[in-house]
Amino acid sequence: MAWKRREKVAIMEPLSMVSDVMSQILREESDIIIEGTLSNFISLKSLLELRKLDVVFSEVYDANTSIIEGLDFLRKLKAQFPAIDMIIHTEIEIPALLIQSNADAIYMKQLGVEGCRASAAQILNATSMVSVLFYEDRKLRYDFEMLSDYEWEVLIMFSQQMSITEIATKMKTQYRRISRVKHIIMDKLKVSNNVAFSQFMALAGSKFGEYPPVSLK
């Protein structure tokens, strides 16, 4: 990534230790200005409405937002502010969903002080933000297709545990169409069967604290 002079940066990170370490490392870079360290998406949205930012570092959840809801926020954020470099810095390793954010780069968070410093240094030293970057030895396996806006809207409703019938009613369309869209979504995300899809949606629709907690070592 080619960092510009006087880069204005915001960090949205619900884990205070990670936020503190990221802020410290970025402040050590003299040309980076931290405009805000935030713990939720509502505060991030407010900051973006008030100030012009160059880069946003963001986790994909906060205390009140599921993974799917967080990714939906980031997807809309990138569409609204295309000039902002959006970097996802996350512990949630669900690549099929993460790429739906349209983020400029995606890095897996390393927890603990030293791990966080290492992942932050990797971001600062990156030469390009064009690729979606996971751990180098795994990124070639992450070959997932982008969902259309309609497919993404249907996926959100599945993550809210709505049935095909309920979605069809809400979307004012036929059961058969939503069933077909579901299979297209499963094919794009490489989910093999209905049971796996239900489990996938149960995880993606969970809020932080409802799925296994993070252990900071």
List the helices and strands and how they pair.
Blueprint: E1 7-12, H1 16-27, E2 32-38, H2 41-50, E3 55-58, H3 67-80, E4 85-90, H4 95-98, E5 105-108, H5 113-124, H6 149-159, H7 164-171, H8 175-189, H9 194-204
Helix pairs in contact: 1-5, 6-8, 7-8
Features:
217 residues; alpha/beta; Arc Repressor Mutant, subunit A; 2 domains; 5 strands; 45% helix; 12% strand; elongated
Structure overview:
The longest helix has 15 residues, at 175-189. Strand 3, helix 3 and strand 4 form a beta-alpha-beta unit. It is elongated, with a radius of gyration of 18 Å. The protein folds into two domains: 7-141, 3-Layer(aba) Sandwich (Rossmann fold), CATH 3.40.50; 149-204, Orthogonal Bundle (Arc Repressor Mutant, subunit A), CATH 1.10.10.10. With 217 residues, it is of the alpha/beta class. The chain is built from nine helices and five strands, in the order E-H-E-H-E-H-E-H-E-H-H-H-H-H. Helix 1 (16-27) crosses helix 5 and helix 6 packs across helix 8. This is Response regulatory domain-containing protein. Residues 8-124 form the Response regulatory domain. Keywords: DNA-binding.
Q: Could you tell me how far the N terminus lies from the C terminus, measured between alpha carbons in angstroms?
A: 29 Å
Percent of residues in beta strands?
5-15%
Summed up, the helix count is: 9
Radius of gyration: 18 Å
The CATH architecture classification of the largest domain is 3-Layer(aba) Sandwich
Helix content: 40-55%
Structural class category? alpha/beta
Shape: elongated
Biggest sheet record: 5 strands, parallel
Q: What is the assigned CATH homologous superfamily of the largest domain?
A: Response regulator
Mean pLDDT: 80
Main-sheet strand order equals 2-1-3-4-5
CATH fold type of the largest domain: Rossmann fold
Count of domain modules: 2
Pattern of helices and strands:
EHEHEHEHEHHHHH
CATH class categorisation of the largest domain: Alpha Beta
Work out the number of β strands.
5
Unreliably modeled segments? 127-140, 211-217
